[in-house]
Amino acid sequence: MTSNKPPEFIEFEGEKIKLNELLQNYKTLQQEHENLHNESRKALEQYRQFQELKPYEAELIKMQEQLEKDNKRMIILFEGRDAAGKGGAIRQVTHYMNEKHYRVVALGRPSEVQRSQWFFQKYVTQFPRGGEIVLFDRSWYNRAMVEPVFGFCTPEEHQNFMRGVVGFEKDLVRQGTLLIKLYFSVTKEEQERRFEIRKGDPLKQWKLSEIDVQMQELWDEFTQRKYAMLKRSHTSEAPWTIIRADNKHRARLNAIKVILNSMNYDKRDTGLDYVPDDEIVISGAREIELMQQQRIETGKFVG
Predict the structure, then answer these.
(1) Which residues contact 83 (CB under 8 A, 6 or more apart)?
(2) FRET partner for 175 with CA separation of 20 to 30 A, picked from 28, 87, 165, 212?
(3) Stretch 220-232: mean pLDDT, rounded?
(4) Domains (ranges, CATH) in the chain?
């Protein structure tokens, strides 16, 4: 009777090789090939994105040179929930900029001395000189969202801020500062996904704080604060621009377009498309309308 059992060894070029080992090596090579293919696709996509951003980053250099030439000041606020991509967007905006003419400012919780001062004082000390851009990675709007949610300020301090911020920004703009306010908006599901990536990546775990862990639980309260902030502080003098940021590349590209459209500068490349994607860039006024519609349809704000 002939056995259907496969041979334990096969002979190749005079050498006996275990069939099980050969099959295991084949599976390993197959997996490595698939991984390499996926990495290649990822690298190609990253290269494509890099090439797409490059001409707009060149325009940012021209804009920066114009600010220096005219001795103008620019402030850009990067606001939004944790893991919304604010830091990555700032790094993209400043990638090729002249380091002598921009600063990134990320201030922590106020000290006891700062708490005894006028609230805006610690921010004013960081404001740009003529020809400089200051990018705030979170700003005075901490007092509109993060601080009241976590009890880092009193209800009275929060209300004083909400009453005073509009006049503060109007004065800032009236005195010649270009103020750009960007709010990076992600869905609850995308924020959770990014938190999970941070948990599993030793190179990103430092980004995950105890406060971050609570962000998902406090989602609805943050959404309420976001609505109140937009409703109060979106003005014609200092409007908010909302950046839908679930797709990081599209968010960064469109944020750069918003910044470039904020002023006129020499040698602008007229061959580029400066029109923001209306699926990504939403005016503050439109976001308020959408949130009001969500509340009517679902009984609460969504995001």
Answers:
(1) 186, 191, 194, 195, 198, 207, 212, 215
(2) 87
(3) 97
(4) 51-298 (3.40.50.300)
